[in-house]
What does this fold into?
Amino acid sequence: MKRRVLGRVDCPVGRALDEIGDWWSLLIVRDAFDGMRRFGEFQKNLGISKGILAARLKHLVAIGVLTTEPVSEDGAFEEYVLTKKGRDLFLVNLSLRQWGEDHCFSASEPHSVLIEKENGQRVTRLALRGRDGEPLDGSSTVVRKVTGRLGSAKERKPKATRPAKSTVRA
It folds into this structure.
């Protein structure tokens, strides 16, 4: 099955998924947040093949999530560093972490936890709040769809059809 390209859709979620590409990319970004910078560190931690890792790193650099920096003056080795665009994925990573904690582990099953460096305390839960400070969820929000845009589904004109060939002969 061929993957559908979502880079031109009106939905930010669709475009973001198209940009990121696959789950390996988010795991690489997760590891970069954990301080990993070298190809070998990513490979060892993820257990990913060199070919797939090289392709994902190249993609993440191409879309501006990571940048490369030389490790030494001779430039023989590079490190991968999160850009601002990459660092902006922190809340995505945190949200996935919290969803995983809630839905992918039993109550007694140990798992990694995110803590604040400064005080060693567990990070408080991410919560979306409205302008009034009250919690928001899917039932208290709605997506305002793009309308009236040339090329949107509502505005597309049907394809022109050829006139039917006449079966009446003169």
Q: What stands out?
A: The first helix runs from residue 12 to 20. DSSP finds six helices and two strands in the chain. The radius of gyration is 23 Å.
